[in-house]
Specification:
606 residues; Beta-galactosidase, Chain A, domain 5; 2 domains; elongated
Amino acid sequence: MDKKTIIAVVLAVVVIIASMLLQNVFFPTPEPLPVSETPVKTVVQADSTEALATEALATEALATEETAQREPLESQTDQQTLMQVEGEELFEQTYRIETNVFTVVFSNRGGTVQSIKLKDYRNSDGSEVEMILPRESGRYPFTVHFGDFNAPPVDTLFHYEEALLGNKATFYQVFNSPSGVPFRLTKTYILHPDDYMIELRIAIENSINEYPDLNFNGIAYTLGFGPQIGPDFKKLDRRNEYRNFLYQLNGKKKTLRPAKSGVTPLEERVPWTTISGKYFQVIAVPDATDYKITYDSRAIEGLKDQSSFYFSRPEIKSSKNTDVFRFYIGPKKRDMLLRYNETGKNAYQLRDMHFEQTVSTSVLIGWLAAILKFFLELFHKAIPNYGVAILLLTVLIKIVLYPLTRKSFDSTARMQALQPKIAEIKEKYKGNPQKLQQETAALYKREKVNPLGGCLPMLLQMPIFFAFYNLLSTHFELRGAIFIPGWIMDLSAPESVWDFSPLALPIVGWQNLRLLPLIMVATTFLQSKLTPTGDTSNKQMKMMTYMMPLMFFFILYEMPSGLVLYWTMQNVLTVFQQLIITKLKQKKADEGESDQGPSGGRKQKK
């Protein structure tokens, strides 16, 4: 290759690295579960969702609390810790409700949720995916604060109200407002057997029709979800796992850019917002109330990466008020998310929510990823192993691109044949760069040779490479997909033959020895050695023979094993293609020589 070709290759390398950086920016009988030696109450579950609608909603009249002593707390300027009305002695207890998709553990401390496990999804160790992290932090989702999110959490013990029918958990406690008016805070959770959505109703009531005066700088209370969502992870590196704050505005998905402080308010009123991971997410759907939403990504004790959001409810100006929140807590599977676009397909009669927008697809290569997904699933149906399906898809891609590969090979061979003439031009015009360039271009034109023709296959592979990466990052079925048991256990994550953490290699920070990238480097090097070049004596081209494999090694080392498998396979197939093309050209050349007579003329047929 000449200087232009080298520049083109270098630019291709720059495009690869830049693109990678952009990609980074880019329900049965419930049973109690005790947490102490104190007694545990039992939750009764209904056999159907219809029973939930017919349940008698027995509520305890606040008038029965007349004997309770009311001690109003001194009002603070900004935030408020309200004192509960004294009553019967309570003990900390937990309650478990199981549906067909969830196992949910509730606590009467604050009426919060301590655990949500997804029955149909497993971690690599076989355990069910836990969506509440980290449990040891002592902070749990659905915590209420009187005031904004900086106010102390309401973590007092709540009464638990047994549900006669249905997958339902109700917690309540009576508090005094700053003005001494008693009110009852009730948190009611409603679950449906086959739905990944949980409904939470927060009711604030006063039985004597007296306004409780819940107003702390314009905010009555704040509902929080955090400090982090599952599944568990070692680190958030935006490749193998990440957390994004998303929301929908004017029918389009938006990505929140967290402020440097870690606390980011959202000024717009939105129909839903989400804490989104690679394969799982929590989508919050508030009712029509004009909530102020705040996102928190600050590090807290025991948790470097926090992902929380808060809904601050404006001042309540009535003696009875009920707010409704719905939370989708589950997988980022497009078919499941589409259910919330039609009222008849979800238990909450929601429509046109377009949760499927949270499943990221590239605007430029999304169509190509969709094509790859179609054929990947087609091969997987024939052979139910996604690793084999990736190999077969790679073979199909090479077959489709073969005409261009052959043309590129011929172009490179013709460039190689022109090297003596190019050398003469360089020698003749070595003191005149402008004339040298003109004569070289004229030679290419006369011989009808494109000096960049040899780079065409590599340039065509780049969109496919990025489409594969996009597919591995969004296609849920590839999560935990095993190729070779004991080695490649998850095609959506890097494979590992030795984990030497907490030690890490300097500079790169690698904590695992990975075999597949080493195989990939070997095949890339072999391909580079077999690829014909325009000038085999060019020191720069010889250096690129070694630099390209090393470059791909560092780029792909921490990438999903499915992507490395694809690139390795395409290297192997390219090597075979080059060997076959070379053999065919040699055979054709030998046949041409055999047709020539001793003096160089063509043999005469008798």
